[in-house]
Amino acid sequence: MNLLKKHYLIIFLLALAVCSTVNAQEAYKPTWESLDSRPIPDWFQDAKFGVFIHWGPYSVPAWSPKGTYSEWYQYWLQSKSLFGNGKFKGDEIVNFHNKTYGEDFSYYDFGEMFKADLFNPNDWAELFEKAGAKYIVLTSKHHDGFTLWPNKQANDRGFAWNSMEVGAKRDLVGELSEAVKKTDVKMGLYYSLYEWYHPWWQKDKERFVDEHFIPQVKDLVTKYSPDILWADGEWDMEDEKWKSKAFLAWLFNESNVKESIVVNDRWGKGIRKHHGGYFTTEYEAATPEFNKPWEECRGMGFSFGYNRNEDAQDYNSPKALVLTLVNIVSTGGNLLLDIGPDARGRIPVIMQERLLQIGSWLETNGEAIYGTRPWNNSFQWSLEGEKNYIPKQHYLGGDVILKQTIDPEPGYAVKELFFTQNDKAYYAILPKWNEEVVIRNFKASEQAKISLLATGEVLNGKQAGEDFIIELPSYQPNKMKATDVYAYAIKITKK
């Protein structure tokens, strides 16, 4: 080998060593300090609105007492217990089940009845787009262990327990992923770490983790390349026993989605709201102050899975849902709003209607929501009254935001305005119409242009000491779409 070739070889080997060193330094270690340092992609913070989908064998009975989760049907049935909003004896599901299906009818018999024969993934994807959702999260496997994709670990309890072999005879995760990925909507997958009645989970948790959980979730990620992996069912064991840090290191360093995947914070007992990706809340009404992006998940009623026992009055109004979205976005969070399809794959009409109503409002006012960040103050309380009305109940419903805005309890203040901003403008969002809007402790630019998003009308504003006052025209709902009246967004340009 001549001298010149040796020279190039040395340079090549040095470059390779440098690259290897850089890659080694960049690899995420299986420690929370390292894993928590991984940034959340901007698209997630910009998205603001997503759709949660709870769908599985529990969608067959689709029943639980009001104020409880119907997707927990198997647990309620076999444990003879119940919790949620209200007082329960614990035998409500057992009595319903025995009367409807018989004492000898097992929960596992619902698998064959979960046909999904009316499921049209393209129709679902179109609905999510019209709803203004920027991402969805489908329950690939809930706590009952039934997988919506073909997976061999799903059958290690001794019988087939997945949608390709039982009931639907379809790869439901695959079909919906393919349809959604044809749109601009991001595709997320929910995955429950634990399973209530898996024999290994009950008798040999280490084996369950090593031979069931880890290979199963890796199979899910590898097959479908989700944009989000939404973990749940983590609360019974510490993260060391789940080996979740090692799994996340694999996910961020070696998986096929290592550069793009977004994860939440449900990776072990006590980890939620402390470590992982973005933080999650569930049926909460307080406005948290997190140092990470966060997301509130909730149903349109109280149940995540479809609950035939819920009536029209149990569903949140479109105004309540829009104000819930606005409230969450003003504090820097996302809303993951749940729907529960039925066992045949149809999304209940009232759920479709709510999604379309939200989408219509976002079509007009989306620039005050998407891609925004909070102001210094997320909202403005009225000057008199006790703040932050929150009732004492397990799951806080959409009526709470109405009590905090347009229908206060005696002696309570209300949120008069919500605030968001982007690089070009500030937005003040009104829960109810007011011909004079006073933004306290705010000074607009002298060149600021002010407009009402619902109509495009130019508005007048003036400085009054520390406050900025905006005049709205007389209320003329005929100038707006029916959905625009859920909340009114005022745009104030920064220049």
From TrEMBL:
Q: Report the source organism.
A: Snuella sedimenti
Q: Describe the task this protein carries out.
A: Alpha-L-fucosidase is responsible for hydrolyzing the alpha-1,6-linked fucose joined to the reducing-end N-acetylglucosamine of the carbohydrate moieties of glycoproteins.
Q: Spell out the protein name for this chain.
A: alpha-L-fucosidase
Which Gene Ontology cellular component annotation is one that this UniProt entry carries? Answer: lysosome
Q: Which Enzyme Commission number(s) are on file for it?
A: 3.2.1.51
- Which superkingdom heads the taxonomic lineage of this protein's source? Bacteria
Q: Where is this site: May be important for catalysis?
A: 297
Q: Which GO terms describe its molecular function?
A: alpha-L-fucosidase activity
Kindly indicate where the leader peptide sits in this chain: 1-24
Glycoside hydrolase family 29 N-terminal domain residues: 18-367
Q: What top-tier enzyme class does this entry carry?
A: hydrolase
Biological processes annotated in GO:
fucose metabolic process; glycoside catabolic process
Residue intervals of the Alpha-L-fucosidase C-terminal domain: 415-493
- Keywords of the record: Glycosidase, Hydrolase, Signal
The UniProt entry's sequence similarity note says: Belongs to the glycosyl hydrolase 29 family.
